[in-house]
Specification:
There is one protein chain. The protein has 395 residues and is of the alpha+beta class. The chain has helices at 9-22, 73-82, 95-98, 106-111, 119-122, 125-128, 157-161, 195-206, 237-250, 262-273, 296-306, 332-342, 353-358, 367-380, and strands spanning 2-4, 26-29, 45-48, 55-59, 64-68, 85-86, 129-135, 141-145, 170-177, 179-180, 184-191, 214-218, 228-235, 258-261, 284-290, 309-314, 319-325, 345-350. Helix 11 (296-306) packs antiparallel against helix 12.
Length: 395
Amino acid sequence: MGSYAPASEQEAAAIVSDAVARTERLRLVGGGTKAGIGRPAQDEATLSAQNISGVTLYEPAEMVVSARAGTPLAEVQALLAERGQMLPFEPMDHRRLMGSTGEPSFGAVAACNNSGPRRINAGAARDSLIGVRFVNGRGQPIKSGGRVMKNVTGLDLVKLMAGSWGTLGLLTEVTFKVLPVQERVATLVFRGLDDSRAIEALSAALGSPFELTGAAHLPAGLGENEARTLMRVEGFSKSIDYRLGELSRLLKRYGAPEIVDGEACAALWQGVRDVAPLTEPRDAAIWRISTAPVRGVALAQAVALNRDARWYYDWGGGLIWLATDAANDAGAEAVRAATRTHGGHATLVRAPDAVRAAVPVFEPLTEPLMRLTAGIKAAHDPVGVFNPGRMYAGV
């Protein structure tokens, strides 16, 4: 299998044009840390953005950063940290969960709409993404968006590319809005709540004026014997003290919480972000299920009626990370039945190749949505050279 690693957008465009002429199918990669997500590859060569690298714009006063797609995410984050800034949406590092190596790339954050626990407060990656450059399936360089949030007319290609998993084009540069790092971060930890009471407590906190930036529940057995319900707040230290006190009073019927600060707080949320509680055993299948927070408990329990499973909740109950045996369909029938009944979308993030080839990995689409998806794919990649079949068979 061939391999291409262009050093510029122009070089990438020429490679794609040649591939189109030969109908050569290309697997698009950045750092390769998420290569095991999606249906198994149906390609003949890899096209890597790894060498299309470097920060192209950083204006701290305007709170905007642009970098080429292959730039290591850590490099951008370090640059922002020097000026007391950060990406708002807390992107996940998939390496621990997927057992992968390499360096997460800046472009992949946009391509996968990679969003962590702070999404409940700051929105998803796509909400901060304001500009992209990419090479489409005709070998044409395309620019959309810019340096300000409202610099969009016509079809919003910026949002379309976010979460497209490399099926519509090779991202070569992305631009994000950034936010200041907060002076202090602290977490309230309530212990011993069952799932229903935990989500009830999280909903009450999220509905309060005290602005959570993280809301998760780890059932008993995931790292500790006792269940933990986590509520994170950020800001100036005096504001944090006040909000922690008010939240404790508001939620006193759920028990007396402890306060976790500093490095312990950061490590706690890094584990939630990177799915550390479910990483082992390595042969377990991992599902990522999004639903309405009030339906999360019933959905998880519906899966457990038909399949041995372990899980925890993020986003106040709206995101369920669920592990189950990878045998047969890796629980696809049970998971899809639960999302149909309770509402939601499920993605099979980790499973053997044979399972990912046999069952839908991303949420199955209705016939009208599949026609729309196929039409968008054909408009941007008419020959189907980019990541064929990665999200849906035949697309």
